[in-house]
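Hi Y.,

Following your request, here is the sequence exactly as I used it, all 148 residues.
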Amino acid sequence: MEPLELEPSTGLQPVNDPRPQMDEPPPVRLVAVEDVRLPTPPDIEPQLDAFYVGLWQFERDAGEPGIVYRAENVRLRFDVVAERKPIERETLRPQGIEVLSLAAAELKLVEVERDYIRQRGLTPGQESLLLQDPAGNWIELFEVRRVG
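Below is the corresponding structure, written out as tokens. Let me know if you'd prefer a different format.
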């Protein structure tokens, strides 16, 4: 078998693309078809930032009024409830968040000493982590397995 040889270069240099570069989307997705609204008590914005931006890599959307985080597909908006009584929620159904690695998510939760529940689904290999965010909203983390 003969070794492969490279053809001589044509001398062309790559051209810089003048179009503006788009930022990569955040590596998390919300399980939703439109923007999600969750309630929050006042004065816990730093804890929400540490939870959503620090742990799960959402992006804080500074162009929007209020507390808004951007995922790959939709936004997570928080409505500040000013009353000091317990927040009434319409449902106790957790908000689903798809992360790249459930094992890495679990490691992050252990490192920050945050309580969570590991759940196994009805189908083989279906696992999730259930926990509460700083505002008391239930969050369910799933591992996303992308084809491609």
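The chain has two helices and nine strands.

Thanks again,
Q.
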